[in-house]
Amino acid sequence: MSDFWLRCSLAVVLGAWLFVAGCDRAKASKDAKPPAVPPAPAVVVARVVQRDAPILRDFVARTEAVPTVEIRARVAGVLEQVRFREGSEVKKGQVLFVIQQEEYRAALQFARAQLAKAQADLTRAHDVSIVDRARAQLDQAKADLGKARQDVARYRPLAQEQAIPQQDLDTAMSKEQAAAANVEAVQAALKDTVLNQRTAIQLAEAAVESAKAAVIRADLDLTYTVVESPISGIISKVAVDRGNLVGKTEATLLATVSAVDPMFVDFSVTEADYMRVVKRAPWVARGELRRDIPPALELVLADGTTSPHKGRYVFVDRAVDVKTGTIQVRAEFPNPERTIRPGQFGRVRLVADDVPNAVLVPQLAVQELQGAKTVLVVGDGDKVSQRTVTLGDVYEDFYVVTAGLKAGERVIVEGIQKARPGMQVKAELKSDAVAPAPPAAAPTPAASPATKANGER
After folding, report:
1. Residues 238 and 296 reside in one and the same domain
2. SS3 content of the chain, % helix, strand, coil (to 5)
């Protein structure tokens, strides 16, 4: 009986406990609040715009000073003077070096003395007195021959009439023959004298010319001892110190001068870019230098700054390099500040093409997913969707979109990591994310202003 009542008591206590617990759970369930919904993440969006866009290309370039002249010693001697400061700007005709001069002054004086002697010999060779004496001797011989002939003519009839001895006629005839022979001898002597004088004159004239050449050579050698700058430009350090012997066995290099204004820039472009260039500037293919057209090239230096002066095309090389598939192009840039030096590396930036009505998306909005280019688009109701896009060229901080986006759509540029497709976001429009309108078109294609780009395609 007692067990029965014990079981009953336990049942009553357990039922009461279960009733109280059930009431507490119902009350707690009644008082509980629904779970809070997380707030929409804040992102920054930019609108896709559509407008004409000049497409830029950057090409690795190297500066080249034209002309660059090596200053060398043209005569042998001790280097006595250096009349410039290393690394400074020198002018054309400025004296740079002086080589020992005493030896060359003496050589010039000797050459001038030899010229004076040769001129005196020429004057003596022109003296005709010896020819005149030979002519006088010929006249005398002819006169003697005439007298001998007269004697023969006078004695012959007298001898025939035996008025005079035959011996007198024979003597007269002998004298006539002797006089005739003498005339021939004197005539030959006269010819020899005239020939000798002519030869002496020619030799003297040749000696004079040789002496003049020796004077010119000696004067040049003396002039070469004073070394002047052939161009205006920046001069290098001195290659040979004062006191050294220069030019003894070879033309010793003394220094180098490079013209730096304008500065020439060499760079290589692909065949495709070359065709774009010549379409915009056809005179480049013809080898013309058009200074009447405003320059349009930009030079980006090694520190990322852009030269304040724009450049123009100078020439395009003859042929495409079959090994690299590129062609060499040269441009010139004003360098009045002398800040650009030969041998520097940089990038030449040029307008390669114009894309009309280009759809532009900020580069910050583009992601790469498994080799595909994607963007997050914020549509109606601030819902996020993922879109695959096809990209073209680069324009400033934007890509040219060829497929996948339309003008006016909003793409996420900041907070991409917080957004997911299908999620609702709180979108804030970025005021500076809109591409600036391109400047007004220039009169000619090559005069289109070059704007900055982050890099090549």
Report:
1. no
2. 40, 30, 30
